[in-house]
Every structure is written in C-alpha cells, then in structure tokens.
Design brief:
single chain, 106 residues, alpha+beta, four-stranded antiparallel sheet, 2 helices, 17% strand, flat
Length: 106
C-alpha cells in the first residue's frame, strides 16, 4: 500500500510539471508571436550577403532599429550598439515609451 501511494504521488508531481511546461511553452509562443508582429520589413537598395552562409540579407526594423536577416540561415545581423538599443527600448516598458514620446526621443 505504501509503495502504491508513493507512485501515485510521483505521478501527480509529473503531471503538475507537465502542465507547467505546457503553460510556459504556450506563454513563450505568445511572446515570440508578439515580437514577430513588431518586426517590419524594409526595402533595401543594395544587396548584401550573409557573412555566415552567403545567403541574401533582408532589411527589417525592430523597435526603430535597422537589422538584417538572412533568408538562407535565418541569422540576424546587427551593427555595433544596436542590440543594446533594442534591449533598452524593450526593458523600458510602456511608461518609458510614453515619456519618450513626450520628450521626442526615438
């Protein structure tokens, strides 16, 4: 009886972990979808090649920062300082964005 009770408890812990994993996987998927919607494609005048696979680079903007995405390998290429700019804008939140709009920061 003791052994059976312990197996049931272990099964319940596994089910709880599985539900938690499903919840967080769904949450991650929603966050990625939201980030993808914020990515805007831009027409490029010059053709650039990916440094990794020599695929064609497509220009995009994300939070007002220009970036290049490889059509071949899917790699994202940023210029110096652009990653820090994106991180600052994302971490700022809605209040920071509102203050930026009032002070004309972009």
């Amino acid at each position: 009886m003791e052994n059976e009770k312990d197996r049931f408890g272990e099964t319940m812990r596994l089910v709880e972990r599985a539900r938690e994993d499903i919840y967080f996987a769904e949450r991650d998927r929603e966050l990625l979808e939201n980030l993808r919607r914020q990515l805007r494609r831009v027409e490029k005048t010059e053709e650039s090649r990916c440094p990794k696979c020599t695929g064609k680079l497509e220009a995009y903007t994300f939070h007002g920062v220009a970036l290049d995405r490889c059509a071949g390998c899917g790699g994202i290429w940023l210029d110096s300082g652009e990653l820090e700019t994106i991180v600052k804008k994302i971490n700022r939140g809605p209040l920071g964005a509102w203050i930026d709009s009032l002070t004309a920061k972009t």
